[in-house]
Every structure is written in C-alpha cells, then in structure tokens.
Structure prediction request, 304 residues.
Amino acid sequence: MANFCEYFKGIGVNEPLFSVLESIKKSVRLISEQIKKVDTGKAGTKNVYGEDQLALDVLADKIIQDEFKQNFLIGLIASEELPNEIKLGDGEYAVCYDPLDGSSLVDVNLAVGSIFGIYKANSFIGRTGREQVAAVIAIYGPRTTLLVTTGDGVVEFRLTDEPRFILSKKNIRIEEGKMFAPGNLRAVRERKDYLELVQWWMNEGYTLRYSGGMVPDVNQIFLKGKGIFAYPGYSECPQGKLRLLFECAPMAFLMEQAGGAASDGRMSILDQKVEHLEQRTPIYIGAKKEVKRCERKLGNWEMS
Ligand code: P6P
Prediction:
C-alpha cells in the first residue's frame, strides 16, 4: 500500500500543502503515543468556554503548536484550547484545530480524535469552511487512523508499528443506510420536533451508534458509508455545543468530499461565515438524504 508521501505526490498535491500535512501527521503520531501513557486528570486550567482542560488537552495542544512552529509555511494557527488566533510568521497556510476532541472519554478508554482545517488565509475571521484547502481528522482508537481530503475525495491512512502511516482506504463514499448518532438527546425534553425525528429513526429500525465523541462517531459514518450524526441546539445552548471553525467546518469539508452533506438545519455548514473563533452551530452531518430529512424536520426551530 502507498505511504503518505507516495499517495499525495501521486495525486499532485503541491509541496507546500504536503509539508503542512506532514506536520499534522507527525503531531498525530506523537499525540497517539502520549494518549497511551499520560495521566487523564485535569490540568487545573479552563479553556475559553470555561471547560476544565485535561492534562491531555494541554499536552496535545502543545505537541501540535511545537510541530507547527517548526514549519515556516504555517503562518497562522488557532486552537480550540486557546482564546485567540496566533500569528507564527509569513507562511501562506493557516491551520485551525481541536487538539483532542472528546478528551474526557480517554479515562473511560473510548476513542477520541483531533480535527484540523487548513486554509490559505491571514485570519480565520470572515472565512467560510468552503475556503478550506484540506481537512484532516485523526482517530485514536484501537488503531490510530487519519481521514484526509485535499479536495480530491477522502482517504484513510493507518499508523503501523514502524511507525508509518500507510494508505488503508481510498475513495471513501457515503451512500444510504440506517444508522444514527443522535447527540444532545436531552433536547427532546423541549424540542418535540427532535423527539419525533428520534422516534422516527427508531421506528424505522435505525441502528444507534453514539459514543459521545464526535470524531469516532462521524468517522464511523465515513467507514460504514452511511448514517447521520445530529447535534441540535435547545434553549440552554441555542446554537448547540459544537464549534464551527474547529469541529464542524473541517468535518463538513470531508463529508461533502465523500458525497455526503453537512447542514446547520438551514444551510450548508461550509457556507457559514466565521464571525468569531468560539462560534457554535447545530450540525446534521452524513448521507445527503438524511441531512435533508433533518433540515425538513428540525430546520424551522426557533428559540421560543
Ligand atoms: P454530549 C465531546 O465533548 C464533544 O465536544 C463532541 O466530541 C461530542 O460529539 C459532543 O461533545 C458530545 O456532547 O452533550 O453528548 O456530551
């Protein structure tokens, strides 16, 4: 099987973008090694959302920052764990990332992930996800894998014992099939539209697949080639919990590249403009037909 370099050179990815992907790849390998051995306790600090940071959150962020600071092509970064975007230099690439999404799942030994969105920009403010030139998710599970798109479809790489990332799946596509990942289920207490949709999925015999980690939950949709992940808003958080820039936009780019869709209930996630780094959005991501169903059933909800 092709390795990371052979694959991207083979599809004509230019040297600068490949160099950025290499920096991401190396940081993922280092994080994968640390997850296995580092304490899963709290770091004693909070992120910009007031959420307790775990030692692993802080460590993963440091690993990524250290890697990116060594790549002069990366001129701007933004991390879900930091309050502001950081200018590193004059590099043409801007990389936003969630260093360890779902990190609290590590202490119950469930899979977690990292999420990266790559732009050519000198600020993330004002961008839309459609401007991304690449997106990567890393899944730290029984295996460490990467799903990558540079705008030419979606492929998977698997980390071997060498360690090396080898191409493990090409041309990942989303078709149809009955699998659902209903996030924020607590919302059904007030959102009858969501309650009715969840009941519809159950009555139709959909298979429930929800771990509480967005990366493994959406990765499952990519690899099974079917399904829908939903995380709606409700009165306590009208825009939902998930962040546009760090989580939803990179996932949406990958999903559209695999023939799926991602919506906030009314428009493509990729067409939402980033007004501020902490921006959250409801998200319905997966097979096109499933996303359309969510738009029909949930798209008219307004905070009452
Ligand atoms: P809930 C993890 O904390 C996360 O940010 C996503 O990875 C995941 O999809 C979501 O929150 C889970 O949220 O409300 O089910 O705990």
